[in-house]
Amino acid sequence: MPTTLDQLRRFAVARSLFNPTTLKRAVHKLGFVQADPIRAPARAQDLTLRHRVKGYRAGDLERRYAGLGIEEDFFVNYGFLPAPLQVLMHPRAGTPPWSAMKKRQAQDLLAFVRERGAVHPREVDLHFAHGRAVNAWGGSSNATTHLLDDMHYRGLLRVARRDGGIRLYAAQDHDTGNLDAAARRARLDALVDIVVQKYAPLPAASLTGLIARLRYAAPQWHGELKAAALRAKQRLAHERMAGTDWYWPAGERLPRSTPDDTLRLLAPFDPVVWDRRRFELFWGWAYRFEAYTPAHKRKLGYYALPMLWRDQVIGWGNLAVKDGALVSSFGYTAGRAPREAVFRAGLRDELERLRVFLGAEA
Predict the structure, then answer these.
(1) Are 39 and 259 in contact (CB under 8 A)?
(2) Host domain of residue 288
(3) Which of 1, 169, 193, 284 is the most exposed place for a label (fewest CB within 10 A)?
């Protein structure tokens, strides 16, 4: 019997919202947790993990980071990932070469970090006086901070921990041995499989787009990504539906059970809703992240959280903690909330979970 869109939608929700487990296991199972600095009402990484980690509280990832065997790094975006995944991406030999002056600065900075063990950017800035540099957003930042970021991306430094949200860096070494063609293909295929494992089922265009984003993870293999995409389409499970080709890991079976009555408010970058193309195919409306949209042009709100009820995203919520208490407002695609008592109970339960997660007053 052909797969239906309803089955695919339930499959996407069920495989991503697995039974809550430990923090370490959840990060390893997800493969990658996208990070975002905005806290409204909490950072995206915390909002993502709270559905998948038992007893999770806002900030647990930062507090426990050093003991989890994970790293901060670029993958398809910036975020948190298991250390074995980071190894697959390094050394990043495809980055633009430094000038002679920048190379000397990096060597001096690396020696300083090795001597100190773990350094705060402010400590580095006090020791070195490299002036100012234009950052990726066109603004101005301390040149030492800019260089720390660049060295982190190139794999010379790692994030040892955070202090009040600020990254503290330590030196890092990666194997610089040359990889033959077979080893490169194996690493790229492994990176692709991690992408698929997290975001599947994927329409073909989204699969291709996500694989193309691996140019951030492994710029040294940018020219091999198209071939990696072709290999992926050959080994993944595949079905064509209503003019769209869909892909997911081979061997995974679509669920037959119906979703429960749980209501969840998801992070804007939660894997269930991350792919906006798939979102519109599944739920028939356009969700947009509007934090960087001028206030007068926003339709959903500064940091609207998609509202997943059963296997349907039926609206969104805007939440904040004011004077210690959780305040909330909601919008619905149908113009009003569902009338069922089970929906009202589900919303009350979710708000209580959020209150505890945020440490807000009862």
Answers:
(1) no
(2) 263-358
(3) 1
